[in-house]
Amino acid sequence: MKVNCQLPNNENETIELDFITEKTSIHDLKSLIFDKTGTPIHNQIIEMDKKKLPTKYDKKKLSSFKVSQSSDIRMVYDLEGGCGGGCDICGLGGGCQCVIQ
Q1: Largest CA distance in the chain
Q2: What φ, ψ does residue 96 adopt, rounded to 5°?
Q3: Contact 43/14 with Cβ under 8 angstroms?
Q4: Are 31 and 25 in contact (CB under 8 A)?
Q5: What is the gyration radius of the CA atoms in the chain, in angstroms?
Q6: Are 75 and 45 in contact (CB under 8 A)?
Q7: Of the four listed, 18, 44, 60, 91, which is most buried by Cβ atoms within 10 Å?
Q8: Exposed, middle or buried by CB within 10 Å (0-12, 13-18, 19+), for 70?
Q9: Are 75 and 33 in contact (CB under 8 A)?
Q10: What does each of the 101 residues of the chain score in pLDDT, given as a tens digit?
Q11: Are β-strands 51-53 and 44-48 bridged in parallel, bridged antiparallel, or unpaired?
């Protein structure tokens, strides 16, 4: 299965993720995003159907969330510190949708 994942940059870039099966976990998904973008796994928050998945779900399989090729999956940044809005702490020009914690 191929799944599209929207990234939080100024162009709302979408990447296509291959090798996704019903056995793929959220952590595996984060690893695939890391391979394509270089975003460290510990800085990724996965959003499905506009709900952020806490890291406690990282071991769960995508099949438990009923993920299909038409699923809406987004990755947002989990960064510590910063001003909270338009700060450009992530280097994306201040137009990102970072989660500043």
Answers
A1: 39
A2: -80, 180
A3: no
A4: no
A5: 13
A6: yes
A7: 44
A8: exposed
A9: yes
A10: 566 677 766 566 777 777 788 789 999 999 988 888 888 898 888 888 888 888 899 999 988 988 877 777 888 877 655 444 555 555 555 555 554 44
A11: antiparallel
> Among 75, 38, 79, 68, which residue's Cα sits nearest to residue 53?
75
What are φ and ψ of residue 23, in 5° steps? Answer: -90, -5
What are the C-alpha distances in Å from 45 to residues 25, 38?
Answer: 14, 14
**Residue 97 neighbours by CB distance under 10 Å:** 15
- Model confidence, pTM: 0.71
- Minimal CA–CA distance to 65: which of 55, 54, 57? 57
Contact 25, 11 (CB under 8 A): no
Token code pair at residue 55: 């890291």
